[in-house]
Amino acid sequence: MLCDQMTPKERMEAYNKGQQIDRLPCVPIVGNTAARVINAKVSEIRNNGKLLAKAHVEAYRMFRYDIIRVFTDLYVQAEAMGAKVHCPYDQTAYLEAPAISDVSEIDSLEPVDPYRDGILPQHLEAMRIIAEEVGDEVTVAGPVTGPFTNASFLIGSENLVRLILKDPDKVHKLCEISLETCLRYSKAIIDAGCTPSLTDPMSSSTVISPLQFKEFSFPYLKRLIDYIHSRGKSVTLHICGKTKKIWDLMAEAGADCISIDNDANLLEAKQIVGHRVRLMGNVKPSEIMLQGTVSDVKKAVYDCVRQAYDSPKGYIVASGCSLPTETPFENIRAMMDATREIGYPPNKDLIT
Description:
- Helix 4 (about 50-65) packs parallel to helix 6, helix 7 (about 145-155) packs across helix 8 and helix 7 (about 145-155) packs across helix 9.
- A hairpin with a 7-residue loop joins strand 3 (about 85) and strand 4 (about 95).
- By secondary structure, this protein is α/β, with parallel strands linked by helices.
- It has helices at about 10-15, 35, 40-45, 50-65, 75-80, 120-135, 145-155, 155-165, 170-190, 210-215, 220-230, 245-250, 265-275, 285-290, 295-310, 330-340, 350; strands at about 25, 65-70, 85, 95, 140-145, 195-200, 235-240, 255-260, 280-285, 315-320.
- The two termini are about 20 Å apart.
């Protein structure tokens, strides 16, 4: 088995400078699969900072990927603002009820105090522990649910989409409140020694039109990214589903790296925005990483590298979205091993 010759931070720093690296950065986006590494239940790690930290440190040490992303689910910010989240014993949490049911209640919403509200303090504790234990060798990312998506969890996605047409001013008001939560949580993540990583699935062109994205999501993403940049941190932005028509706007918002969902085409992304932003993706999380064989995973990695290794601003091998909880360990190892086998510059015999 091939071994890494550089730490993730050494690799990324050299890659950013155009210097020699041992392989491309690789990020199988491990979320609740980390619970399986320490034989814990998903609900146990979600609400316990020390256990969440242990799960992600041990998962990193097992697979040696290039970014630790301390993720359990998308709802931790909305929950801290009053949304009701259901946490099955051993499955990913889901939104049970939004924080409010009517626009007349918007004034009752308040931005979070990340050191007090909901389970945000537990997640910040996990980030601090991870940064102290392994932050000298690997970037630790704290996921932030984007302003528009978080707003949808405050009033319900169907209600928000209706408001876009009926009362756009109320949508902007929700997004302003949501943005303030994102800013406060991002500040706390950075103060914990970590890097905010943005996920905004409701901004997908699968859900809203590019014009609606430009009006209701883009301005708030840009302000959030501007703040993160002002703190000296780069930004990775992931939007699920179909995003081709908003790639330029994602770059214009200031994203340094765009995480490409497996519904999108990596080669097209390189051709359209590869000269503006780094690309990341997009091995299929369910069809390949969860259900595929080791051979399937390696072939998918080879295909992705072939499409994007020469993207002008760089490329990170990654899953198209967070991995399902039950993703086999051997498939995560296969993703890492395939990236090591390809090396950098890539072994053309493997990717042609």
